[in-house]
Amino acid sequence: MQEPTFLILTALAAGPQHGYGVITDVERISDGQVRLRAGTLYAAFDRLQEEGLIIEDREEIVDGRVRRYYRLTGDGAARLAAEAERMRRHAKAATARLRAIGSGGMA
């Protein structure tokens, strides 16, 4: 799973959000390292909906414009949990190897 996808799903794990909310949440989650553009986000939303990982939750009209909210599905939550566990295992392996080399390899 690509990092932007992981972060989008992570943002939606907090509850339904509209596109701009996801963009700002992803930036916050990643400490500013990942900044999604609207076109990238909505292409990802389309793909994630096709995969059954998110669905449209509701629409509302704000200042005459439609604001769509998206939410994580059960399959989306399971996929996010599996990816988080995979990343945790990899981080654990990296941490163990870094400990094994001690401070001598960490100049």
UniProtKB/TrEMBL annotation:
<dbReference type="InterPro" id="IPR005149">
    <property type="entry name" value="Tscrpt_reg_PadR_N"/>
</dbReference>
<dbReference type="InterPro" id="IPR036388">
    <property type="entry name" value="WH-like_DNA-bd_sf"/>
</dbReference>
<dbReference type="Pfam" id="PF03551">
    <property type="entry name" value="PadR"/>
</dbReference>
<protein>
    <recommendedName>
        <fullName>Transcription regulator PadR N-terminal domain-containing protein</fullName>
    </recommendedName>
</protein>
<dbReference type="InterPro" id="IPR036390">
    <property type="entry name" value="WH_DNA-bd_sf"/>
</dbReference>
<dbReference type="InterPro" id="IPR052509">
    <property type="entry name" value="Metal_resp_DNA-bind_regulator"/>
</dbReference>
<feature type="domain" description="Transcription regulator PadR N-terminal">
    <location>
        <begin position="8"/>
        <end position="81"/>
    </location>
</feature>
